Amino acid sequence: MRVGLVIPCYIDQFYPRVGIATLRLLEHFDAGDVEFPAAQICCGQPMANAGCVADARPAAARFVAAFRSYDYIVAPSGSCVTMVRNHYHGLVADEAALAE
Question: pTM of the full predicted structure?
């Protein structure tokens, strides 16, 4: 089982220990092969929240492309997860990739 680890932009910049702790938890519970895709960027939530939806589209598309091949995606951020699960429909052109 392949697990893609999302480290949100604010955790990367301000709380890196949260990202490390998340990885350690996944490893401790033998969650599978945990990977941090280097291609990941911000989920686009800050842009979407500010009303800059057009600016959020490329970030959302890149997020989907970076995590498309994983069996599971884990993120230590409820707001980023809800952005992907509840707000990417209509934001990402490739709905098939989003469904995967």
Answer: 0.87
Residue 8 sits at φ, ψ, to 5 deg, of: -60, 155
Contacts by residues 53-61 (CB-CB < 8 Å, ≥ 24 positions apart): 53/91, 56/91, 57/91, 57/92, 57/93, 60/84, 60/88, 60/91, 60/92, 61/92, 61/93, 61/94
The 10s digit of each residue's pLDDT in 43-98 is 999 999 999 999 999 999 999 999 999 999 999 999 999 999 999 998 888 778 87
